[in-house]
Amino acid sequence: MVNLKDLDPERSPSAAFGARLRSMREERGWTQVELGVRIGCSGAHISAVETGFRPPTPRFARAADRAFGTGDKFERQGQALRQTALIEGFPEFIRHEGRAAEIRLYEVGVIPGLLQTPKYAATLEADAVRREAITPEQADERVALAEMRQAALVRSPSPLIFAVLDEGCVRRPMGAPSVMDAQYERLLEFAELPNTVLQIAPFSMGARRPFSLPITLLTMADRSLMSYAESAHRGHLERESTFALPFLAAYHQLQTEALSQAASVAMIQKLRKGTP
Fold it and tell me: Where in the chain are the domains?
């Protein structure tokens, strides 16, 4: 039987869809297999949708409406789910991020959202619009979210923030030179804060780099540990400290191998001046 906590509708849009599906199924006294017969899929597929593990397709949502006689309610909920600008699992992560006592992040390729200027974020999302990966409205939502996340961290007591950026993050130009100049200034300001540490993981680390994908580690007020990582289509928040602990050890290794904050700041200052 699925643990009820896995059906928290606040966790994500997919979880909300799944919780509603489960509630209506149980109201009618149907098993997952019985609902699957009515929709045209397996009971295992119903279970995956109910727990948010598998997002509903348009065909599934329409079939659910037919099975329950709900008009187009499931179809509209499914459409809203697909139209959101946020990757699966990310909304839940940022709620925890806003309460974390310590934040450790590693990023590859682009400046992470917590450190982006509005113009850098807008430039990044404008390219996603050009590729038709998102809509202009979704781009605006993402830019606004970046600012909201940064504002949520201006609190007392201030969270400790450790940021390790792959060298490609600071060397890859984004938009006009003025955009990068302001972004470099933002990074330098971040490094001067009393509750932050900024380091660059240089290309010379080679195979010694412990992470190949971006990852964020959150230490909560009760000292519990969470980790968050993304694939192309969804994010995974690991809430069990036991499973997140190995990532913390790897992060400490990353910090040891990365440039010191002083050397990292010096690299950013040279890049800002246009020198190699």
Answer: 4-83, 90-273
- What is the residue-level pLDDT of the chain in tens, covering all 276 positions? 344 445 566 666 777 888 899 999 999 999 999 999 999 999 999 998 888 777 787 889 999 999 999 999 898 887 666 555 566 667 778 888 999 999 999 999 999 999 999 999 999 999 988 988 777 877 888 888 888 888 878 888 899 999 999 999 999 999 999 999 999 999 999 999 999 999 999 999 998 889 988 999 999 999 999 999 987 666 788 888 999 999 999 999 999 999 999 999 999 999 998 866
Residue 35 backbone zone (phi > 0: left; psi -120 to 50: alpha; other: beta): alpha
Tokens of 276: 């190699």
Q: Which fold does the domain 90-273 belong to in CATH?
A: Endonuclease; Chain A (3.30.870)
Query: 4-83, what's its fold?
Result: 434 Repressor (Amino-terminal Domain) (1.10.260)
List the structure tokens of 147.
């600012």
Q: In Å, how far are 16, 23, 73 from 109, measured between CA atoms?
A: 32, 42, 40
